[in-house]
From TrEMBL:
Protein's recorded name: IclR family transcriptional regulator
TM helices/strands, residue ranges: none
Superkingdom, taxonomy of origin: Bacteria
InterPro entries noted in UniProt: GAF-like_dom_sf, HTH_MetabolicPath_Reg, Tscrpt_reg_IclR_C, Tscrpt_reg_IclR_N, WH-like_DNA-bd_sf, WH_DNA-bd_sf
Domain IclR-ED: 64-253
Keyword list, A-Z: DNA-binding, Transcription, Transcription regulation
Record SUPFAM superfamilies: GAF domain-like, Winged helix' DNA-binding domain
Residues covered by the HTH iclR-type domain: 8-70
Length: 260
């Protein structure tokens, strides 16, 4: 650590201990944490005990090694979702204004797709098939399907295995997903033709960075009558692809900055 003296205050002390553990991917024992944090043994033990109570830190019962806990991983995931949503905000507003329909932003988490933002356009019949925070198995709904189709063969097979019963609840089969994957590869977008809510359709494109990282999917949903092929080809799809490129570019810039 670069600080010459230990920080004061309980939050600052907790932050120092978390910093120490963040630099120890294999964990650290009490002696190591004391040495790196510059705290006394008593203070370090007290801070670790408090962090364990809220699942920010856990201790292996056999080795007595301390590691960062699951709650911090959850906070990190939430922060990432908020970041994606904030970066996509203006682009989603442009899409909602351009199409007058509903725009959705979904992010992948394991075998799940999570809706992290939604913008409603001016058209009076609104497509509200997803709300912020809604979760679906990858492959159900246009945005979720765009994420699914952007995975490797091995990852898609794993998703089908993990979500088998959940997909069945939506009437989705592996054969059906295979057909939609082929459509995605041929056309560059994923589609949902009334598969979740009757009379409502959507299309979606993935957001992928230059490094190949799958960040999110942007989707536009509307009543079936507004999703005719000519409107998709001439308005909706070009708009989605344009905003997906812009959003990917923002993440490319962030990744470059982080790698300096």
């Amino acid at each position: 650590m670069t600080s010459l003296s230990p920080p004061k205050g309980s939050i600052a002390r907790a932050a120092r201990v978390l910093d120490v553990l963040s630099l120890a991917p294999d964990g650290a024992d009490l002696t190591e944490i004391v040495a790196q944090s510059k705290f006394t043994k008593t203070t370090t033990f007290r801070v670790l005990a408090s962090l364990r109570e809220i699942d920010y830190v856990f201790q292996d019962p056999a080795t007595r090694i301390y590691r960062l806990g699951s709650k911090l991983a959850e906070l990190s995931r939430n922060a990432e979702r908020i970041n994606v949503s904030a970066l996509a905000e203006r682009g989603m507003a442009r899409l909602a204004e351009m199409s007058e329909d509903t725009v959705f932003l979904s992010v992948p988490e394991g075998a799940v797709s999570i809706c992290v933002n939604r913008k409603v356009g001016a058209f009076p019949i609104r497509t509200l098939t997803l709300d912020k925070g809604d979760r679906r198995p990858l492959g159900v709904g246009a945005g979720s399907l765009a994420l699914y189709c952007s995975l490797s063969d091995e990852q898609r097979a794993a998703v089908c295995r993990v979500n088998k019963s959940w997909l069945t609840d939506y009437g989705v089969t592996e054969e059906g997903l295979a057909a939609e994957y082929n459509f995605f590869k041929a056309n560059g977008y994923a589609r949902n033709k009334g598969g979740v809510v009757r009379g409502m359709s959507a299309i979606a494109v993935p957001v992928v960075t230059a490094s190949g990282r799958l960040v999110a999917a942007l989707a536009i949903g509307a009543i079936n009558e507004r999703m005719e092929q000519s409107r998709i080809d001439n308005l909706i799809l070009p708009g989605l692809k344009r905003e997906a490129r812009r959003l990917a570019g923002r993440f490319n810039a962030l990744e470059k900055e982080q790698n300096k």
